[in-house]
User: Fold these one by one.
Assistant:
Number 1:
Amino acid sequence: MEEKLTRLNKYLSEAGYCSRREADRLIDAGRVTINGIITELGTKVTENDVVEVDGKSITERKADFVYLAFNKPVGIVCTTDTRVEKDNIIDYIKYQKRIFPIGRLDKLSEGLIFMTDDGDIVNKILRASNNHDKEYLVTVDKPISQTFIKRMAGGIYLEDLDKTTKKCTVRKIDSHTFTIILTQGLNRQIRRMCEYLTYEVTSLKRTRIMNIKLDVPTGEYRAFTEQELKTLHMLLADSDKHYKQTTELKETKKVHSINRRKE
């Protein structure tokens, strides 16, 4: 019987060590070994291989996964690399098990971020095509005009990223504060959008991700409720189905395009 082969980044993710994206960074940095040998991106492993990160063995997890809603303070960096960044999210929380953040909030921003040791759920949430709602409360340095609200909601071309932001929901709260609901996660997206319109963000707080709202004090966390986790999995199942359908459609169009060029 042939041994089951698993891509190394997926193995680390399913072992609850980190996300696949973070695993790729660890592999690329030469910090991961298989049977004592430094490995490379794309390598596959079997259940009998000995996988180590920084010399410490990784074993497939058997315990229940951890899902936390954490209110990140300003000044904390969403990285698991505790060797490089002293103000990292891992050392700040000091959770008894190894967990990692899903996505990021930049150092100057605060608010809701998920922490988990479930690598599979990380990948599903981070897929750009899933269009998951993320809501933010934003304060800027000068009075907000209706033109500002309209242009923020309609989509803005970010030249340095060569991307136009998706249409979104923007609502004015007071003269300097608004809420915005995004369905994409470009790097420093809200700050870049405001800068384009000559506004500067003075505070930015994420208040909701999908069905889970921020309801704990700054610097504290809580576990997902059973109902929250059930609803989250339902939302991810629907978007995962859409992702697969979209991928299959793209592949079909690609094949048709290749065949037309051959004719």
Note: Helices lie at 8-14, 20-28, 89-93, 119-126, 146-154, 189-196, 226-262.
Number 2:
Amino acid sequence: MSAQTSGSTLEGERTPPTPDDLASLLRVMNDAASRLEVSHQQLQDQVLRLTQELGEANAQLERARRLAALGEMAAGIAHEVRNPLGCINLYSSMLDEDLRADRPEQAAVARKISAAARSMESVISDVLAFARELRVRPDNVEPGALFDAVVEACAPQSIPAWKDVVIDRRICDGMNLVADGSLLRQALINVVRNAFEAMAEEGGARSNRLTLEAGERRVARAGGGTLRCAVLSVSDTGPGVTPDIVARMFNPFFTTRGAGTGLGLAIVHRIIDAHGGRVSVSNNTQGPGATVELIIPMTPAEGAVQADTQARPQSAKGHAA
């Protein structure tokens, strides 16, 4: 057997690593450590998000229970008050007719009593609307037609303080959803009226704008996974909302205004709950005002909606009314 050439390694011996080999190994280890750190941070973020979503789901469930109990109590009181109130309204109207000819001052008092009774009847109607059981009757809803009906019902042009408000509609092309159109119309009317009142209270010479937008978004669902949802948003250019008001604005009988029952937005919350969705409120990031989002599953039977996940890019179109 011939001898091997001088300087070569014997069979079975290992070549010691060079500095380049060590540097390459160190780079691989650093890359692996960096990836592990990123994965750890992502897991921490996911745990935090899931914890927040679980807290929101529990809070929403507890809220629904409280509202159900409050609704039953309010309905009982409203029914008890409605009958004697109807008698007051009837007798004051009869008294007005009897006194109108020869005792106009006393007749005016009777008319004031009748007006107060009608005002109370309106409050009772709001209470009963809040307390009644909501049965969702799903049907195909076209967002553009829905927005048109809401704007027509609110009739902003009939109120001087709202005449100069510009209304924009932005609707995702080809969007259609399955929901109770009548209930959604009622919910949007309450939100839009609230937005108009907020802008009217702000006053001043600035131009106000109301934006009605309909789009789609993937959101987290109860029990995990994501859900394709419709998002109907109403944005105004009013004073915006404080965190304290956001936390209480959907509570029954809460209002920041001198008039009203404070049930309009509570009814909105009940309607969206009945569709398995949720309501989101936030101040606008660009410019003044706030945005209310009504988030409901594209198919109501798919279940409750929780926090937002990734947004889907929308192909939107808008025009002023």
Note: Residues 1-9, 302-321 have pLDDT under 50 and may be disordered.
